[in-house]
Amino acid sequence: MRHFLVFLLVALSVPAIAQDDLMNILNEESKSKIDYKSATFKSTRLINGQTIETVGKNQLNFWISHRFGALNSGFINNFFGLDEARIRLGLEYGITDKLTVGIGRSSQEKVYDFYAKYKLLRQSNRMPVTLTVYGSNAISTVITGTAMESGTVMHYDNNYDRMTYTGQFLLARKFSENISLQLMPTVLHFNKSETPDVSNDFVSLGVGGRVKITKRLSITGEYYYSNFNRSGASPYHNSLALGFDIETGGHVFQLHFTNSRGMIERQFIAQTTKLWSDGGIFYGFNMSRSFSLDKKSKKPQQ
């Protein structure tokens, strides 16, 4: 009988020990598994500027960006700006899930812009933020020797003088399913500045965010402080934009108001000529459509 009781106790303890070992293994695996955050923002652009989001591999985004004239331009002559229009058409492609390249053409200043984005870090249970680096080059093709449209009279000897380079760190965190915030430290380099007393290098700090209201509707905003090395006599101002994102399947509609008419970094960060306080507000919209160029994919990335 004594031997039987010893055997019974051993038989009952083995499953308990095995269960404890199994739970320890599962806990260790759950700790080691990386849980990535997704959809910090619903598109690669916040309003005027970029977000940390990149295009998925073999995905193509087509962008249409449109800005009307200023609201304070009058009703009779300009119908509160609706008689005027500026447009940018753009394409961006995902070489990998982390690397995106793009090209665009703006009617303002007849500018072509080329850019690339690379996602260095991704928010997860091990990483508190997402970090994407962004670089672009823009060149105006306005006829040499004529004035630009940025608000001052600028004359250049050739189109190389009109080139601008932009570098950004895009640092964002998704705090919850409804709230995301982003910082955008930015440096711009102008091959030729507007006047001799203006530096060729320009520094700005942007902040932006998104608040999700419903499943398909979000409020967005962005602000660029650009007075770090701007002279007191400068005709330019900081850029502020507020808007709404509306998701409809493969489309994203962005409706917004901003005091910046230009749609690339050199225009809205460094050359904003209007103020919200005096009605210098432009109504506009962005629309993007995603297409899958991956034969294995049955539907475009959303």
SSE topology:
Layout: H1 2-32, E1 59-70, E2 86-94, E3 99-106, E4 111-121, E5 130-140, E6 164-174, E7 179-190, E8 201-212, E9 217-225, E10 239-248, E11 251-258, H2 265-268, E12 282-292
Antiparallel strand pairs: 1-2, 1-12, 2-3, 3-4, 4-5, 5-6, 6-7, 7-8, 8-9, 9-10, 10-11, 11-12
Radius of gyration: 26 Å
The string of secondary-structure elements, in order, is: HEEEEEEEEEEEHE
Structural class: mainly beta
Cα shape:
globular
Total number of helical segments?
2
Helix coverage percent? 10-25%
Written overview of the protein:
By secondary structure, the chain is mainly beta. The protein contains 2 helices and 12 strands; from the N terminus they run H-E-E-E-E-E-E-E-E-E-E-E-H-E. The longest helix has 31 residues, at 2-32. Strand 2 and strand 3 form a beta hairpin. It has a 12-stranded antiparallel barrel.
